[in-house]
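Archive maintenance. Older records in this collection stored only the sequence; we are now back-filling the structure field for every entry so that each record is complete. The fields below show one back-filled record exactly as it appears after the update. Entries are processed alphabetically, and DUF488 domain-containing protein is next in the queue.

ARCHIVE ENTRY
Title: DUF488 domain-containing protein
Organism field: Halosimplex aquaticum
Length field: 146
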Amino acid sequence: MTGTVTDTYAAALQHDIAEVPDDARLVGVVRRPTGWFSALVDENVPALGPPESLLSETKERQEDLRMQGLCDEEAHNAAWGETDFEARYREHLASDEAARDAVDALAKRVADGESVALVCFEGESKRCHRRILDGVIRERAGTGGE
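Back-filled structure field:
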C-alpha cells in the first residue's frame, strides 16, 4: 500500500488549521529551522530546502521589490519569477547528491506506505518550494504528481 504526500505551512500547524491526514508524519523541508519550527514537525530534512545561494538571491530581490512599493506577497512571488526559482530548485534536487538522496529516501518511505506532510514557512498565497517537492516525491514514489 502506497502512502500519501501532502503539504502545509508552519502557521497552519500552529493555529490548528492544517489539512493533513492524521497519520501523516510532519517532515520539515527547510534549510535553517528555528527552534519553534523544529518543535512543530516530527523531523526536518535540511537537504530538501532550497540552496542558500538561491534563498539569498531571491530574498534580496524580494526586498528590492518591496522597496519599490510591492506588498510582501507580491514581492515574494515576483522575486520567484525573476530569479527563476522553480527551475533552479528542480535543478538542485536533481544535481545535489544530498538533495537527491533525501528525495529518494522520502519517496521510498511513501512508496512503502508512509504518509508525509511537507512543512515549511510560506503560507498558501506565496509560491513555495514544498509544492514542487510534493510533485517530485509523488512522481518518484509512483503515486502520481508532476
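Update note: The chain has one domain: 5-141. The beta strands are 5-9, 25-28, 43-44, 116-120.
Entry marked complete.
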